[in-house]
Write a structure and sequence with these properties.
The complex is a heterodimer.
Chain A: H1 2-35, E1 38-39, E2 49-50, H2 54-61, H3 63-95, H4 101-113, H5 116-126, H6 133-140, H7 154-181, H8 186-194, H9 199-227, H10 231-237, H11 246-256, H12 260-290
Helix pairs in contact in A: 1-12, 2-12, 3-7, 3-9, 3-11, 4-7, 5-10, 7-9, 7-10, 9-12, 11-12
Chain B: H1 2-35, H2 39-42, H3 57-63, H4 68-99, H5 105-117, H6 124-133, H7 140-164, H8 168-176, H9 181-192, H10 194-210, H11 213-218, H12 227-232, H13 244-264, H14 266-279
Classes of the chains: A mainly alpha, B mainly alpha.
Chain lengths: ~290, ~280
C-alpha cells in the first residue's frame, strides 16, 4: 500500500520535468525530422511541399556541407588534442604540492568563467592586425617579422580560433583531470619510489593508466562540445568558408537562407554524428553512473 | 651538481607556474586595461600596459544612449527565470529519482542524460517553428523555455547525486514521526541539499547567462535581446569604425560579476562541475 503510494507520488514529481522535456526536446526534434522531408521556408509562408529524401540526396552531393564537415573535424581534432595535453600538464602542475597552488587554480578558472562571446571579442581585439597587443609584442620581441592579419587570412583563421578555444576550455579539462588525479592513492607512488621507479616511469605506469577513465570522460565531453562549436567562430569570423563548421552552416541555411527543409536535413546529419559519440559515452560511463 | 639540478628543476617548475597564470589571466587583464583607455590610448602603435591615461569615457559610451542597460536586464530576467524554473522542477524530479521507489527510474535518467548530450543546433529549426506556433518568438518566456533544454537536465542530474548522498536514517526518522514524503522532502531533505542547490543554481545561471545561439536566433529586438548577442553586434558610428574600447567596457561589465561569483564559490563550483561532468 505504502509502496504504491510512493510510486504514485514519484510519478507526480517527475511529471512536470517529463512534460518540459517532451515540449522543449521531443517536439522540436520531431519537427526537425518531419521538415527534413519537405521543401519549406522557415516562416512557413508558402505551402510546404513533400519531397521525400531529396534534401538528404542533396546533402550527400553538397560540396559546402563536405567543407563544413571537414572544418568541424579539423577544429575538433586540433582543439581537443591540444586541450587534453595542455589540460593534463596544468592538472599535474596543480596536483603537485607547492606554494601558491590555490592561486593557480583560481587563475585558470577565469577563462572558464568568461562568456564565450566575450572571450571571442577579447581575442579579436588582441589579434587586431594593427593595434592588437599580440602583433605589438610579437614584433617587439622579433617573433613576428611584421604585423599579421590573423583574422583576415583564410589559412590563419581556423588556427587563431582554435587558439582561442584552447584558452577558454583548457581549464575545464584541467579541472576534470585534476579530479581524476586526486583519486589515485599516494601509496602507489610511495611503493614505486621505494622500488626505484623514476618520476617519468611513475607517470607512464601509474598516473596514465589510472587516469584513463577520467581522461576518457573529459575527451568525449570536449569532443561533443567541439563538434557543435558555434559561438567563437560566429563572433570572430562570421560566416566564412575557411571557418564554416557544421553548426554555422546549419544556422546559415535555416535562418539566413530561411530553408527549413535542407536546414533540418543538416540537423539530422549532425544528430547522427553526435549519436555515435553519445553511444560511446553511455558505454564508457553511463552504466557506472546509473548503478 | 645535484643541488644545481634541484634548483634548475625548481626554477623551471615555477617558470611553468608563472606562465600558466599569465596565460590564463592576461587576456582578461588586457580587456580591463583597454576598457579604461581613451581611444587615443587604444589605437596607438605603442600601447601602455597600464590604464594610462585613465578614462571612464568607454563605460559612458556603453550605457548612455544605447540599449545595453536593457540587454543586461533581459539577461538577468532570462538567466534568473531559467535557473529558478529548473531548480523547482529539478528538485521535485531529483527527489523522486534519487529517493523514492520508482520503477522506470533508469529510463527517465537515460532520457535526461541524453538531453544533456543534445547539440542545441540540432533543434534550432524545430524550436524556431514551435516558438512561432505558440506565439513566444522574441519573448522572455520563449527564451527561458528554450534554455530548459540544457539547464533542466543538468539540474536534475546533479541534484539526483546530492539526494542519493544523504543518509537513509534521516528519512526513516521522519517517516517514523509520521511525516508524509512531501513533508520529508520540504522539511528534512531540502534544507540538507542547500549547498547543492546553490552550486547547481549557480552553474545553471552561468550557462544561461552566457548562452548565445538561441539568444541570437529567438530574439530580434533589444526589448528582449540578452547581452551576448548585443556584444557580438556592438557597432560603431560607421561600419568601418569598431568601438573596441566600448566593446571591452561592455565585456568587463558582464564578466566581472561572473568572475567574482566564481572566485567566491570556487571550491563548490569545481566540485559541482566535476560531479556534473562525470555523471552527465
Amino acid at each position: 500500500m505504502l509502496i504504491q503510494r510512493q510510486v504514485r507520488l514519484a510519478w507526480l514529481l517527475v511529471l512536470p520535468t517529463l512534460l518540459v522535456v517532451v515540449f522543449v526536446a521531443g517536439y522540436p526534434l520531431a519537427q526537425v525530422f518531419y521538415w527534413s522531408f519537405f521543401k519549406a521556408d522557415i516562416a512557413l509562408v508558402d505551402p510546404p511541399e513533400l519531397v521525400g529524401f531529396e534534401n538528404y540526396l542533396f546533402l550527400l552531393r553538397d560540396p559546402d556541407f563536405r567543407e563544413a564537415l571537414w572544418n568541424t573535424v579539423k577544429f575538433t581534432i586540433f582543439s581537443v588534442s591540444i586541450e587534453t595535453v595542455l589540460g593534463l600538464a596544468i592538472a599535474l602542475i596543480i596536483h603537485s604540492n607547492f606554494k601558491g597552488r590555490g592561486l593557480v587554480r583560481t587563475a585558470i578558472l577565469i577563462p572558464w568563467a568568461i562568456p564565450t562571446v566575450v572571450s571571442a571579442k577579447m581575442w579579436q581585439w588582441m589579434l587586431n592586425d594593427v593595434y592588437g597587443v599580440i602583433n605589438v609584442i610579437g614584433v617587439k620581441l622579433g617573433i613576428l617579422s611584421q604585423k599579421v592579419a590573423f583574422l583576415a587570412r583564410p589559412e590563419l583563421m581556423l588556427p587563431a580560433i582554435i587558439a582561442v578555444d584552447v584558452w577558454k576550455t583548457t581549464p575545464f579539462m584541467a579541472l576534470l583531470l585534476l579530479a581524476g588525479l586526486q583519486l589515485i592513492p599516494d601509496e602507489l607512488y610511495e611503493a614505486a619510489s621505494i622500488d626505484g621507479a623514476t618520476r617519468w616511469q611513475q607517470f607512464w605506469t601509474i598516473t596514465l593508466p589510472l587516469l584513463t577513465p577520467a581522461l576518457l570522460v573529459a575527451l568525449i565531453f570536449r569532443t561533443l562540445d567541439a563538434l557543435r562549436v558555434f559561438d567563437v567562430i560566429y563572433v570572430m569570423t562570421g560566416v566564412n568558408s575557411a571557418t564554416r563548421t557544421l553548426a554555422i552552416y546549419n544556422r546559415q541555411n535555416l535562418i539566413d537562407f530561411q530553408d527549413l527543409g535542407y536546414g533540418s536535413a543538416i540537423s539530422v546529419a549532425i544528430l547522427i554524428i553526435t549519436f555515435v559519440f553519445v553511444i560511446l559515452y553511455m558505454r564508457s560511463i553511463g552504466r557506472e553512473a546509473l548503478r | 651538481m645535484k643541488r644545481t639540478l634541484f634548483w634548475l628543476n625548481r626554477g623551471l617548475f615555477y617558470f611553468l607556474v608563472v606562465f600558466v597564470v599569465v596565460y590564463s589571466v592576461f587576456p582578461f587583464y588586457w580587456a580591463v586595461i583597454s576598457s579604461f583607455k581613451p581611444s587615443s590610448g587604444l589605437f596607438s602603435p605603442d600601447p601602455s600596459f597600464l590604464p594610462i591615461p585613465f578614462t571612464l569615457e568607454q563605460y559612458r559610451n556603453v550605457f548612455v544612449g544605447t540599449a545595453f542597460g536593457r540587454n543586461l536586464l533581459n539577461s538577468l530576467i532570462v538567466a534568473g527565470g531559467a535557473t529558478l524554473l529548473s531548480l523547482v522542477l529539478g528538485v521535485l524530479a531529483a527527489y523522486a529519482l534519487g529517493r523514492l521507489r520508482f520503477p522506470p527510474k533508469n529510463a527517465v535518467l537515460y532520457i535526461v542524460l541524453s538531453m544533456t548530450m543534445f547539440p542545441q543546433i540540432a533543434v534550432l529549426g524545430g524550436f524556431f517553428v514551435l516558438l512561432r506556433q505558440v506565439g513566444l518568438f522574441n519573448t522572455h518566456a520563449g527564451l527561458i523555455l528554450s534554455y530548459m533544454l540544457f539547464t533542466l537536465p543538468f539540474t536534475v542530474w546533479v541534484l539526483v547525486g546530492y539526494f542519493r548522498g544523504l543518509p537513509r536514517e534521516l528519512e526513516e526518522a521522519a517517516y517514523v514521526d509520521g511525516a508524509t514524503p512531501v513533508q520529508t522532502l520540504l522539511r528534512v531533505m531540502l534544507p540538507l541539499t542547500g549547498p547543492g542547490l546553490v552550486t547547481t543554481g549557480l552553474l545553471a545561471f552561468i550557462a544561461a547567462w552566457n548562452e548565445f545561439l538561441f539568444a541570437l536566433t529567438f530574439t530580434v529586438s533589444d526589448v528582449v535581446r540578452t547581452v551576448p548577442p548585443a556584444i557580438a553586434f556592438f557597432g560603431g558610428a560607421t561600419p568601418y569604425e569598431i568601438p573596441w574600447g566600448s566593446i571591452m567596457a561592455a565585456s568587463v561589465v558582464v564578466t566581472v560579476p561572473l568572475v567574482i561569483l566564481v572566485l567566491v564559490f570556487q571550491q563548490r563550483i569545481v566540485a559541482g562541475l566535476t560531479a556534473g561532468a562525470v555523471k552527465g
